[in-house]
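Minutes, methods subgroup
Present: GH (chair), OT, SY

1. OT presented the first of two proteins processed in the latest run. Sequence and structure tokens recorded below as shown on screen.
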Amino acid sequence: MTSLTSLTGKTALVTGASRGIGRATAIALAKAGARVLVHASKASQAADDVVETIRAAGGQADKVAADLRDANGPHELAKRVRSLTGERLDILVANAGISKAASIEDTTVEDFDNLFAVNVRAPFFLVQQLLPVLGDGSSVVLLSSLAARASVNNLSAYAATKGAVDTLVRHFASALGERGIRVNAIAPGVVETDMSNFAKTDAGRDFTLGMQALKRVAQPNDIAGAVVFLASDDARWVTGDTLRVDGGSKL
């Protein structure tokens, strides 16, 4: 596996890596030379397929499972990661997330709590629990969204979680900079994944293209390349930032 960016000798954890952006990111990191821990919420064939894809191309990958919706999920995942990596993790991509399209009137307390549990609480405590193995030169990449800065359909609760992620990035970067840990976020627009099935319809495609400068629907690989950049030494002087990777959406 070859790439212009070298992550040889580094170990990465990608949460929510069985499909979509997470899957593309895990494969891209492995292509750049990293050993990748492929996380899924539970044992799944999709996660096994990602591991097999990486190994078949000559890369290194292992699967780890934990339900990040559970309050103790990040703690359990961190234990499993440390048992596999020993005393060093170089790259953490907190990609796992859920979405819920609903009006303000139709959003339930359960919806709201689930969104914040997976999208905000899980990455916060995963970073906390992995601090002992994140050291000088490590990179943490969180997943934000276009919805954090612009109104996009009925996503107010989801957007609030991504606004919280942008805030966490700045605070984490400030607090962890003395340890040589960089913290950034990627903010995609609409990407053709299971989370954005509407983009696969004619109406959804027209809506997406109508708000973008670049006139095509993004694919997971479009986002994965930016994650690899932030994880690499090429971005060694970038921290506390949210990088928009949205095709020029809502300019």
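2. SY then presented the second protein from the same run.
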Amino acid sequence: MSIQRKPTEAAIEAELSEDAQVAHYLKEQPDFFERHSELLAHLILPHDTGGTAISLVERQTAIMRNRNEKLDKKLRELIKVARTNQELSDKTHNLTVALMRADTVHQAFQVIEASLREDFGSERAALVLFMNPQASPEIVSNNFMRRIAHDDPTLKAFSTFLDGAKPRCGQIRDAQREFLFGPDTSEVGSAALLPLANNPSLGMLAIGNHNAHHFHPAMSTDFLLRLAQSVTAALQRFRHQLI
């Protein structure tokens, strides 16, 4: 009758040391199994989803398949973003061209409103112009465009935004929403505010959406900035009417 002895600590340490050496060697020789492919058939690894053992080749195949699926998903996401950016770029270009063709400030107003509604799918939009009360009485406020004096107390609700002179996205306060879109617009959950001119001395453009997360503070504002620049450049052609 033989007696099985427990491995000594020295033997365990020696075995662990050998494992570390083998692991280090394989790490330094990534083409080892390519040079000794006959060994692959004799190597087995536990499967991630169970206790069944699979060959190293099967394991590597599964890993590569998983990586390919992740890369394919990432590629589809990048293609989707690229297409969206291209569409927005094309629409902004079309708006710019249409504004260049506008002969009057009223035509420019119509182009801006139609483009925001038809091309950019805005549910609510407002163009606010800072104008002297005595200037151009033929420019009358309507549901889309409203004129207001630059020092009007109502604009205090936008003081932080106006001082920053940068596009801002997210949820807006009740006073801001009512000023921009009217008293019966509680369905506007989020909005993008765009300054017109650097100060902004010309006014501001607001785009509203019912989704509270459609416009959010973390979103990129590059596209909105280009949109604001196109509108600003077009309206400055008629600045003599807007002061």
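Chair's summary of item 2: The longest strand covers residues 124-130.
Next meeting: continue with the remaining queue.
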